[in-house]
From TrEMBL:
InterPro entries assigned: Dup_hybrid_motif, PTS_EIIA_1_perm, PTS_EIIA_component
Protein's name according to its UniProt entry: PTS glucose transporter subunit IIA
Cellular location(s): Cytoplasm
Major location (coarse): cytoplasm
Highest taxon above the source species: Bacteria
Source species: Olsenella profusa
Alphabetical keyword list: Kinase, Phosphotransferase system, Sugar transport, Transferase, Transport
Pfam families on file: PTS_EIIA_1
Length: 187
């Protein structure tokens, strides 16, 4: 067995599915971290009436750059998954509910191009891979690839601070990497 095969076997399950390595970063229980690297956009700019109106919650949209691997933005329990694997919810021990929705209209893809790595009721740690998806498949199907990451129970907090900023800009917008702070929920 060569070096490449040893490395590959470290991240492959018994059925041959490749599991990306976990991301590691310091966390706080009141903070939501970037689940994917990309360009930050306001929810108001997301081309979906429900998301842009804030009906799913308060947060950001992220236009992915690089590999389509979605990481846990908080530590907690997987509350809900979808059959089509285009969204996932996590509830923290402190009661924060975080919803991540991949793409606009991607429910119509019927799960093609998406692979979920966790199931409902699984305990996850911030930085753990939750799902893989193909940005190219989303674009080829004619859908927007924006990833919405929101606190879906914002009424449980006095305020939610949007802290997603970085010194790196792309087209005048902040570029974030996995594990960068996005939202801080204040009681």
């Amino acid at each position: 067995m060569g070096l490449f095969d040893k490395i590959k076997s470290t991240f492959a399950s018994s059925n041959g599915t490749i599991t990306p390595p976990a991301a590691t970063f310091a966390t706080r229980p009141d903070t939501v971290y970037a689940p994917i690297s990309g360009v930050l956009v306001s929810l108001k700019e997301v081309n979906d009436e429900v998301i842009s109106a804030g009906l799913l919650g308060d947060g950001y949209g992220i236009l992915p750059t690089g590999a389509g691997v979605l990481y846990a933005p908080v530590s907690g329990r997987i509350g809900a998954t979808t059959v089509t694997n285009h969204s996932i919810a996590i509830r923290t021990e402190e009661g924060m509910e975080v919803l991540i929705h991949i793409g606009i209209g991607t429910v119509n893809m019927g799960g093609k191009g998406f692979t979920r790595l966790v199931e409902a009721n699984d305990e996850v740690r911030a930085g753990q891979p939750l799902m893989t998806f193909s940005v190219d498949a989303i674009k080829l199907a004619g859908y927007d690839e924006v990833v919405a990451c929101v606190i879906s129970n914002p009424d449980a907090y006095a305020r939610i601070d949007h802290v997603g900023e970085s010194g790196t800009l792309l087209g005048g917008r902040p570029l974030v990497k996995i594990g960068d702070p996005l939202l801080v929920a204040r009681k």
